[in-house]
Write a structure and sequence with these properties.
Blueprint (H helix, E strand, L loop, with lengths): L21 E6 L1 H12 L3 E4 L8 H12 L10 E3 L2 E3 L12 H20 L3 E6 L3 E5 L3 E3 L10 E5 L2 H17 L5 E6 L9 H21 L3 E3 L2 H8 L15 H15 L2 H17 L9 H20 L6 H8 L4
Helix pairs in contact: 2-3, 2-4, 4-5, 8-9, 9-10
Length: about 325
């Protein structure tokens, strides 16, 4: 143990992910952070097709809607404060045009369904065991600032969380999906619930998900929560709200994620991809200079070489960037 911190090592898992893997990430902010890192490194990722979700019930509902191929209809939407909303979705889907909102929701539902059916790994990030039940629509994923009097707030019991979470690997298997399921617990504290109730919520989720991990060989746990709470237990690793991990903390957890899930070749590919991406962010002083034209030619050759060596990579964005400067 280090004299100034508690080091938590992450041992390699029983399976690795690579650039040929089909990955699905669903849930709380951690899913967004790690999913964003995976996307930056050119992995095939389906990231929160319903938007950020916090509670187990809403996550299971999203999986069921996608895999049972049940698109949303006008009857599923509610008009509130000049916007059409879905209580199953994050606010990023809201909008004044009902048809546009439905189209956006169902487009992502179908894309999520296709990725799930081919998934090699599904990452589920739980945020809270607290749920809000609407008087007409039942448990919601997001209240969308609808008046509180229309909701009843309660905490899911350990038994409820356990039943929901253990249904996930069974439900995936029933659709012929042999993906590994990795559960994580978001380290973001839900402070509006109060410190004690937030701790109760996290403890309930931890207890339930570990019961599932112990039961199913295909289920695993990644210790994002422990890395933040026990390894990086210092407010310098938080943003100014003192609740969310800082970019430095997210980067640290990402390194531990790579340590657990990446093989040697995947580490090498990521390094090579990042070099090209960083080069594409270079702003030339004189695009027509001989030195910059040599730079462009070199980068295009690197892109060609990477895509030839690793056919699963898509560097079309970087290729387009360099091509626009080529004389």
């Amino acid at each position: 143990m280090d004299a100034f911190r508690t080091d938590i090592s992450v041992e390699p898992y029983s399976f690795f992910i690579n650039h040929g893997s089909k990955l699905c990430l669903i849930g709380s902010c951690f899913a967004e952070n790690v999913g964003g890192m995976l996307e930056q490194n050119k992995f095939s990722v389906m990231l929160n097709p319903f938007g950020i979700l916090f509670n187990p019930f809403s996550i299971m509902n999203a999986l069921e809607r996608m895999l049972n191929n049940r698109p949303y209809t006008e009857d599923d939407l509610v008009f509130h404060e000049e916007s059409w909303i879905s209580f199953d979705h994050h606010g990023r889907f809201n909008g004044p045009d009902k048809e546009d909102v439905l189209a956006g929701i169902n487009e992502e539902l179908e894309a999520g369904r296709k990725q799930l059916l081919e998934a090699n790994a599904v990452f589920i990030t739980l945020g809270s065991a607290w749920v809000y039940e609407h008087e007409k629509h039942g448990v919601v994923a997001n209240c969308h600032k609808v008046p509180n009097k229309q909701f009843t707030k309660r905490m899911l019991s350990h038994q409820e969380c356990h039943l929901i979470l253990r249904h996930i690997p069974q439900f995936l298997a029933s659709h012929g999906i042999s993906a590994d399921v990795v559960f994580t617990l978001s380290p973001v504290r839900h402070w509006k619930d109060g410190p004690v109730q937030n701790s109760r919520s996290k403890a309930t989720l931890l207890s339930a998900l570990h019961a599932v991990v112990d039961e199913f060989e295909s289920c695993h746990y990644f210790p994002a929560y422990e890395l933040m709470m026990d390894d990086l237990r210092d407010y310098r690793f938080y943003t100014t709200d003192m609740l969310h991990p800082s970019p430095k903390a997210t980067e640290y957890i990402w390194e531990r994620f790579k340590q657990g899930f990446f093989g040697q070749e995947t580490h090498i590919i990521c390094s090579e991809v990042q070099a090209v991406i960083q080069a594409s962010q270079h702003k030339p002083m004189d695009p027509e200079s001989n030195s910059f034209q040599r730079f462009v030619k070199k980068q295009l050759n690197l892109v060609d070489g990477l895509e030839k060596k690793y056919p699963q990579l898509d560097l079309s964005k970087e290729r387009a960037h360099f091509t626009k400067y080529k004389l």
